[in-house]
Design brief:
By secondary structure, the chain is an alpha/beta fold. About 30% of the residues lie in helices and about 15% in strands. It is built from 3 helices and 5 strands, in the order H-E-E-E-H-E-H-E. It has helices at about 20-40, 85-95, 110-125, and strands at about 65-70, 75, 80, 100-105, 130. It has a 5-stranded mixed sheet with strand order 3-2-1-4-5, with helices on one face. Strand 4, helix 3 (about 110-125) and strand 5 form a beta-alpha-beta unit. The radius of gyration is 32 Å and the shape is rod-shaped.
Length: about 140
C-alpha cells in the first residue's frame, strides 16, 4: 500500500505570523523573578548606623552650621534661633543666597524625627544644599 505525500508544489509557503510562545515564556520567567526579588528589596528592620569613613572634604572659608542640640533647640553658628525665625536667620547669614551649603550637626541623643523636622525647615526656607556633619571613624567615642 503506497501513500503519495507529494502534492505537486516544491516551494514551502511562508508563514508571516509571529511566534509569540517564546516571548510569553520569557515574560513569565521575568514575572516570577521579580515577584520573588521585590520583597527582598525592602528593608523593615531597625538599623544602627555606623560612623562615617568618607574622606574629609575641603571646608568652605565661612561654613554655615545649623546645630540641633539635645534639648531640640536650634543654633545657627553660635546664635540660638527659633524654628519660626530660622529662614530669616539663614537669609541674614548667607546674604539670601539659597545655593550656599548648610552644614547640619545634631547631638547623638537627638531622635531621627527631630532631625527630619530640622531638615524640613531648611527645605521650607529654600535651602536645598545640606551636608550632614558627623565624627570621623577615628574620632568616634
Amino acid at each position: 500500500m503506497a501513500v503519495r505525500l507529494h502534492h505537486g508544489e516544491d516551494d514551502l509557503a511562508e508563514n508571516h505570523d509571529i511566534n509569540v510562545t517564546p516571548f510569553i515564556d520569557v515574560m513569565l520567567v521575568l514575572l516570577i523573578i521579580f515577584m520573588v526579588a521585590a520583597p527582598l528589596a525592602t528593608v523593615d528592620m531597625p538599623v544602627d548606623l555606623p560612623t562615617s569613613t568618607a574622606p574629609r572634604q575641603p571646608r568652605p572659608d565661612r561654613p554655615i552650621f545649623l546645630t540641633l542640640k539635645s534639648d531640640l533647640s536650634l543654633a545657627l553658628g553660635d546664635t540660638a534661633v527659633t524654628r519660626e525665625g530660622l529662614a530669616a536667620a539663614l537669609d541674614a547669614a548667607t546674604g539670601a543666597d539659597k545655593d550656599k551649603r548648610v552644614f547640619v550637626r545634631a547631638a547623638r541623643t537627638v531622635d531621627y524625627g527631630a532631625l527630619m523636622e530640622a531638615m524640613n525647615a531648611l527645605r521650607a526656607a529654600g535651602y536645598l544644599k545640606v551636608a550632614l556633619v558627623g565624627l570621623e571613624a577615628g574620632d568616634a567615642k
